[in-house]
Design goal:
With 196 residues, the protein is α+β, with helices and mostly antiparallel strands. It has one domain. Helices cover 30% and strands 17% of the residues. The protein contains six helices and four strands. The protein starts with 9 loop residues before the first strand and ends with a helix.
Length: 196
Amino acid sequence: MAEQEMKFTYQVQDFTVTVSTEEYIRRYSNSECFIKYCKECRNYGKVWVCPPFSHDTMAELRQYANLFLVATKIIPDEKKIPFSEVNRFFRPERLRIEKKLRDMEITYRGKAFAYAGSCLYCPEGTCSRLDNQPCRHPELVRPSLESYGFDLGKTASELFGFPLLWSNDGYLPEYLTLICGLFHNAENICKNKLKI
């Protein structure tokens, strides 16, 4: 008898805020601390969206005046969902927001940043970086803000007004949060047009 796939429902809330690039770098960059965490990760140096990077990341970002940030809060409808099911919530929301960010990147001639975690476009352990080859999907893949050394816990609490929650009992927390953004030089970004 085939195992029945569990279906989970959830609510999504998207929050946005714009901050100057210089202010975001000054207040939320902590590369020394976060690169240490990155080095402990199994993907460090093995996937193109993770450090180490071969360029000056802060110089790259300083080409842009502003950062449009999006915090996606995912609230499961059920309680006591095993943490092993986290990607059933993350994956569809990552795909949704990352596509919008890539579209915005073109519209506003900016640089998009996606969510932390594994790449969605190549099976785990098959990144072309392992063979010193270029990324197979550069039109789709974007680094995370964490990979550039930004503190997303501080970003969530100070800019969005709610903390990141973590699992400590093997079950999903009350809500999950994904934070991404777009560095840009536009005077403003029309949020209504985006329908985030």
